[in-house]
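Sat 14:20. Reprocessing the chain from the morning session after the first attempt stalled halfway. Input below, unchanged.
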Amino acid sequence: MMIAVFIVLLDMIGFAIMLPILAYYALQLGASPGMATFCMALYVIGMFFSTPIWGRLSDRFGRKPILMISLAGAVLGYVVLGFASAVWMVAVSRLFSGLMAGNLSVAQAYVADVTTEQDRAKAMGMLGAAFGISFIVGPALGGYLAGDSFADANLQLPAMVSGLLSLSALLVVVFFLKESLPGGADNPRVTVSSREVISWIGGRRSLCLLLAGVLVYNLAAGFVESVFPIWADATNIAHGPKDLVPVLLAAGIAMVIVQGGLIGPLTRAFGERRLMRAGAVIFGISVILVTLAGSIASVPAVAAALMSQAVGAAFVLTSMQSLTSKETVAGNRGAVMGIYNALGTLGRGMGTALTGSAFAGIGVHAPYYLGATLMGLLLIIALMLRAPRVETTAPVASEAAT
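Finished this time. Tokens:
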């Protein structure tokens, strides 16, 4: 399991390296704020279409070969991004990278394959901790590599470093990761069709609510996270990529502490559903506090609010991942986690695509108010959740999926 976590860590550091500078690089090439955030959204839009396919393919051919393909695609995407000289090249590279990004849902399925239900939340917390560490190391490294000014941010070097990290993750998969399902690519399994999986999901109320929840959460996160560099500049919180490092570092540390060390004991004490509810409340209040801190241009206050937001995010994400994996079985776990992540990326893509327009057309703080409103909706969904359903069989396939 730790090898899978390490693979996700390497790849996500590469992804996080680009966060402080990607939007401003698009602006530098002539994009509007709306187009800049739309370029960022293309990555998650690509993921929306690809992750269910990668998940089903991993159920059939094994987790390892799909991880290899997705990581190879990530390397190529970063190379194209590094040599981009026009906005359309940035857009194409992000869309291609998103289409190839099947590693998250497959890694989640892998971890669920090799853990018991009692250890599932802790294991998903380790994956979450890998995310948290990546958002500590990645933005800091990206800000350092990009330079001191948004106006002439260096994209090529950070993109090449990101590609090198994804290449390293690919090599770890090739040489060290053992397949978690019997058979592997040489002995493909019979899998159920997408229609049968969706029908199976439709009969499970809690699973449907969780899928709605991941859509709502990521829509909110898309609004508040991708616009942050532009918002920070507009509110005089930051004047260059390096200025973003302290506040992003504080948020990342908070997330790592929660997901890497506290989520296991907290889950045993309170359960995933209560933590999900608490996380929605904490996240919603925190994004309002971000706007208040921005109004007075207080960097320490923004950092504190982002730390609180990161705690709420950790509660929500880990709890939803654990609850969703418990609603699945081995025969459809990759497919269901693929749909879960596809809906998450759809929400993230929609929020990211719209946040620049909300920022420019409604007001500087508008994305954060929209995010807080969506957290209220997520809280309602969390209150409707029942205990995880215990299943031992997957849907029966009427024919082999191709």
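Residues 3 and 323 are 23 Å apart (CA to CA).
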